[in-house]
User: What shape does this take?
Amino acid sequence: MERGRALMGQEATGLWGAVGVAFDLTGAIALATLAIWLWPRRERFGSAGGVIPAALFVTAGWCLTVASASAVVSGVFLPSVAESARNLIWLVVVYRLFASDGRHATIAPIRPVIAALAFVEMLHLGVDFALSRVALDGQLLQFAFDFNVLFRLLVTVGGLVLVHNLYAGAPREVRPALRWPAVGLAVLWAFDLNLYTIAYLAARWPVEIAAFRGVATLVLTGCFALAAASNRDALRLRPSRAVTFQTFSLLVIGFYLVAMVAVAQWLSYAGGNFARLIELAFLTLASAVALVVLPSRRVRGWLKVTLTKHFFQHRYDYREEWLRFTRTIGSRGSEASPLGERVVQSVADIFESPAGLLLTPGEQGDLTLAARWNWPEIEVPAVAFPLHAQTYFERTGYIADLDDLRAGLALPEADIEVPAWLTGDARVWALIPLVHYERLVGMVVLARPQIVRKFDWEDFDLLRVFGQQVASYLAENASQQALAESSRFEDFHRRIAFVMHDIKNLASQFSLLARNAELHADKPAFRADMLVTLRNSSDKLNALLARLSRYGNGAVDKLEQVRASEVVASVMERFRANPQVVLAQIVDVEVTANSHSLEQVLVHLVQNAIDASKPESPVFLSLTVEGLTARFEVLDSGCGMSAEFVRNRLFKPFVSTKNGGFGIGAFEARELVRAMRGRLEVESREGLGSRFLVYVPISAASDIFQTMSSQDQKVA
Assistant: This one.
């Protein structure tokens, strides 16, 4: 068995040796080719131009020496000499690069450090030569190995320090010329640093890692080729945010796996008799934690914030943000969300906010709920943002951080008044006003994201641009709806023209019948024909009136004192045969209204509530007094309506969800209530039901409402 293990070890070493020879030979060819190509262009490197081709040739020789030593399995002294020569000549290159901008004369430690590193290399060569002439046993051989590795570590660490100072201390105008040479030398010595560190810790030469030293020389070759290129200033590594995030994620996962394996190995050594069980249990637990934690939204958000903060000059990739915004806001097709939800999503995606609301002006100018996006549980009052609190936002476009407002950290000059339902809910994070031509057309409310951070100038600039763009979309959509409504009115007028034509024909028939009656009224045949004509005309008129009777012009004949309880009783009498309608509460109060119009409004609302509810679901009608108004409430637990439907379709004429409906019932009800100096409000949730509130002024306050209406007309 021991013999088999030895043979397997030799085969593995031979395999890695072959890989190393392939990389070393490839690196030698690339270095020699670059040195020949670079010689006519050496002036591009200034005072270091004459040394760099020589350094490339020496490094190519070192690659050949390492490859030949691996192939013939000879002594290690010749490769050691070649590596020392490689390090020494690259130290000369570094000094020449310092001299190219004159820093070798102003930075005193440069020459002593390079001299010290050269001395260490020469001392290492001398000791290495002496040890190669002495027969060593196992313990002394290990001491000699550790000695060689420590000397190499000193030189590689010193070389990396020099390269760092070479680039970091260079003037800004010189850095483009030093970027690629510094990267190439850093890769070469960083690979050696890891190689010799692992060799020292493992107390053996890591053949598997050493086989890839040729790869470091290939990187060195590519960097100096880029440095000598005529367009080197344009050759900059500009990874996209997606590539950077994915690469960094892979590195995090790789480090996690390496750490997990290292801890598992340590547990296998320290676990005693249960080493295997402890190792497997730890691997299982660590894997489960990784599968839960690494894909989480919070970890991804933290990685993106960290990378953006430390790797990029700007927080946002503006091209990607704009493309994402246009994809979201411009979605088409049956599967696309309503415009209001797309508006919220397009703004929320900037901060990876999970939910949001859109508030837009209502009939009275107060902001009301227009759309929800992933936020069905938050309770929004009918008046979400009063008119008097919008002035500062409309004038300045102020983007409010609710955490600052709760902590009292708002700007001293900011006249901000935020409703209690926003500040009282810790999930509400930010308010973004949507201003179009100095007019507030809406406001986006964002929920708190997983990773919360303070707004900075980039956030404000991007949100203002997106807010203006979103506001223009909303204004354009409102204009299109107004045009569509105007078109529907035009269509309605054309239909009325046909109705008028029918009435004109009937009127002509009556006129003709009246003239003929004067001449032939005494004839039995004429009288019989006249009765048929009158009956047909009467049927046509009744049918026409039946179609039009439910749609008035929104006007009332006159306002008078009406007992509201009698109107409610009359409505209940109309629905006496339907047990669904329940009178919940009633008070005796007089209102200034039109009895017929008020009854027509309530009948329409109750009938709609019945149509929207199941047969076993009750519809409640109540009458109460609220301030200076009487409040009629119609409440049902039917299918309900979405905020988008209430906002954009409920009170729009000629829009109906009923088959054969004309679509002006709700519109006419609201106009009748307005004509009685009242108002009609609605609150509805899909799947929960609807509540319609009709406010009509009581008789004692009619003079006050009349005075207010007159003043409004004078102002207008």
